[in-house]
Specification:
Blueprint: H1 2-15, H2 19-28, H3 42-48, H4 51-74, H5 79-94, H6 107-117, H7 119-122, H8 125-136, H9 139-159, H10 165-181, H11 183-191
Length: 207
């Protein structure tokens, strides 16, 4: 249990590093949460600060999700420990202790978790994401629809014995967290008011 506790704490603390907030302060000199969606993730940074800072935030948020997965697999040598740490990295990103518990929606960090847990499998997921976001121009569609698709793929592979069962539990937890944080986006999508990619950065934060 000590290994689980250590990687859970590490995952949460790594996830809590608010890279979007940090980059927003450096790039714009203000709190990135005061504009757009009010979140610290890649999409809001893209809308409010531009492509380069968004790319930096995306890489950093992926890395902090991958780290506890890698540590769990290679330091603690336990798939369950790895999956638990990666899950708490998502929790930390969404509710960061270092940023007043106001973070992002966890998508990039969740992808980082898969990258750390199963690098080869993770290569498939950007393809799924691109297939959703390119024709629709909605980042939220990629998150709301793409995350469950990827989770089902992981579950099928786990049932078939090609992935550890712990990774399927990680995927299920990631879906629950991401879908919960996207409830406002789902409502706007249904109402036809969700901003498309590259738009919405000048509107007040709405959740």
């Amino acid at each position: 249990m000590g290994d689980y506790a250590a990687n859970i704490v590490l995952g949460y603390l790594l996830g809590s590093i608010p890279f979007g907030l940090i980059v927003g302060r450096i790039w714009l000199g203000n709190d990135i949460r005061d504009a757009g969606s009010g979140k610290t993730g890649t999409t809001n940074v893209l809308r409010t600060a531009g492509r380069l800072p968004a790319a930096l935030v995306m890489i950093a948020d992926i890395a902090k999700g991958a780290a506890p997965g890698v540590i769990g697999r290679y330091v603690f040598d336990d798939d369950g420990v790895a999956a638990a740490g990666a899950t708490l990295a998502i929790v930390g990103h969404i509710w960061p202790v270092f940023a007043g518990f106001r973070g992002g929606r966890g998508v990039a960090t969740a992808f980082g978790g898969i990258l750390g847990l199963s690098p080869l499998l993770s290569l498939l997921f950007p393809v799924v994401g691109a297939a959703l976001v390119i024709p629709t121009r909605y980042m939220s569609v990629m998150s709301v629809v793409g995350t469950p698709i990827c989770a089902v793929i992981i579950a099928i592979l786990a049932i078939a014995g090609y992935q550890p069962a712990a990774f399927a539990w990680y995927a299920a937890a990631a879906v629950a967290l991401i879908e919960y944080k996207h409830i406002p986006n789902i409502r706007r999508l249904l109402a036809g008011t969700e901003p498309k990619l590259g738009r919405g950065g000048d509107r007040p934060a709405t959740g």
